[in-house]
Structure to design on (378 residues):
């Protein structure tokens, strides 16, 4: 019998909502349908405004965005179900990551904040919703991120091949999967994924990203500049570690060099190289035995970035698609999987990855009373 879950992911790139309908029958992971709902320019700029470290937005604006995103997530679910022609009642639960607006795992009172009210998702869709995955791990003294390594382990680990999964979203993170299934999994955020490149091309060409890396490729990499940027303490810190766009931002670039005294395309090429080399250095340092790298996340579409990664690593670098899941779908499928873990009373974090004291059951469950009447939230 099918065992259907929905995963909702809206990542740090702020491009929109990924919704995946996944069947876990017989413990397999099978993507049934996928839907993407882009954010409007208005939503994008409000989220950007709320997420700024120095943001002084009103509580009213914050609360309204939480509610508006809850509705948008529900809309994505309903569009997904209509596309798949599957009734609501067939879906066991939704796993909603929410929109990260601030991630601060290393301050005195650590927190990670994702918004998009799950009460609204449950009420509007009529499907039990699991949300707020990161804060339980932080409560257990973990980083709250990355959470996807447990899923990577479940679907990509191979007994005859030491693999490393590299997700290149706004931020990049790796999961090291040794052949030995009982060996410890390593995983952490390596630093910027597409975020610095996206910010730079937005500033100079008013484009959301450098399509296929074409603009960056016209520039010349400044290796001295990359060496300078690589000295940032984040790259040299030992895991567990996680980061966000609050840290890797335009001010981060400006603190290191006078960016406007360089040719804009040379800076783009250098930021692309920085992204590639910090990923490769992380793999070489923490997973020297890696035999194959599988790439997921939007960075797969940046040909120049992929070229630079392949040039700086000895093993084959391939798309996750050849190994079962399209790179653009991996994170949404992972949140369907994490919701299933929670619904089955199983932990979702890998404590060796996040640094939590224990494996914990992640998220809050917003239940729906299937017999009708009001859903019960807890
Ligand atoms: N054709 C393309 N060429 C170059 N880059 C692309 C292309 N398509 C997508 N991207 C990059 O992928 C990004 C989106 O990636 P993705 O959806 O994996 O990020 P995310 O899930 O929002 O981030 P995170 O994993 O950090 O939460 C875009 O912002 C862009 O930089
Ligand atoms: C706080 C937050 O939203 N972190 C994201 C971000 O995007 C990539 C990287 O930084 C990763 O740590 C995480 O996302 C994935 C889904 C994770 O938790 O594994």
């Amino acid at each position: 019998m099918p065992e259907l879950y929905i995963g909702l992911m809206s990542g740090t790139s702020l491009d929109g909502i990924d919704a995946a309908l996944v069947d876990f029958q017989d413990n397999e992971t099978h993507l049934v349908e996928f839907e993407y709902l882009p954010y409007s320019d208005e939503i994008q700029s409000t989220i950007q405004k709320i997420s700024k470290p120095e943001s002084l937005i009103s509580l009213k604006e914050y609360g309204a965005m939480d509610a508006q995103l809850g509705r948008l997530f529900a809309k994505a679910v309903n569009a997904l179900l209509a596309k798949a022609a599957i009734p609501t009642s067939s879906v066991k639960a939704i796993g909603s990551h929410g929109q990260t607006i601030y991630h601060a795992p290393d301050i005195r009172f650590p927190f990670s904040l994702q918004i998009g009210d799950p009460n609204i998702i449950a009420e509007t869709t009529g499907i039990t919703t699991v949300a707020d995955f990161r804060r339980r791990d932080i409560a257990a003294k973990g980083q709250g991120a990355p959470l996807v390594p447990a899923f990577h382990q479940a679907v990509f680990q191979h007994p005859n091949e030491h693999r490393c999964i590299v997700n290149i979203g706004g931020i990049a993170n790796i999961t090291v999967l040794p052949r030995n299934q009982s060996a410890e999994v390593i995983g952490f955020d390596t630093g910027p994924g597409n975020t610095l490149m996206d910010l730079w091309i937005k500033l100079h060409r008013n484009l959301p990203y450098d399509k296929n890396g074409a603009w960056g490729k016209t520039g010349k990499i400044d290796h001295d500049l990359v060496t300078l940027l690589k000295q940032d303490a984040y790259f040299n810190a030992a895991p567990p570690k996680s980061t966000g766009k609050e840290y890797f931002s335009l001010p981060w670039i400006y603190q290191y060099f006078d960016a406007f005294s360089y040719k804009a395309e040379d800076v783009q090429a250098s930021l692309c190289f920085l992204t590639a080399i910090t990923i490769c250095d992380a793999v070489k340092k923490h997973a020297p035995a890696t035999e194959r790298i599988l790439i997921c996340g939007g960075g797969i579409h940046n040909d120049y970035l992929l070229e630079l990664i392949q040039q700086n690593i000895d093993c084959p670098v391939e798309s996750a698609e050849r190994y079962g899941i399209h790179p653009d779908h991996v994170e949404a499928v992972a949140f369907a999987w994490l919701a299933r873990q929670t619904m089955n009373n199983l932990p979702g974090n890998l404590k060796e990855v996040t640094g939590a004291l224990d494996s914990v059951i992640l998220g809050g469950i917003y239940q729906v009373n299937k017999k009708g009447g009001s859903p019960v939230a807890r």
Q: What stands out?
A: The radius of gyration is 20 Å. The chain has a mean pLDDT of 96. Residues 188 and 240 are 6 Å apart (CA to CA).
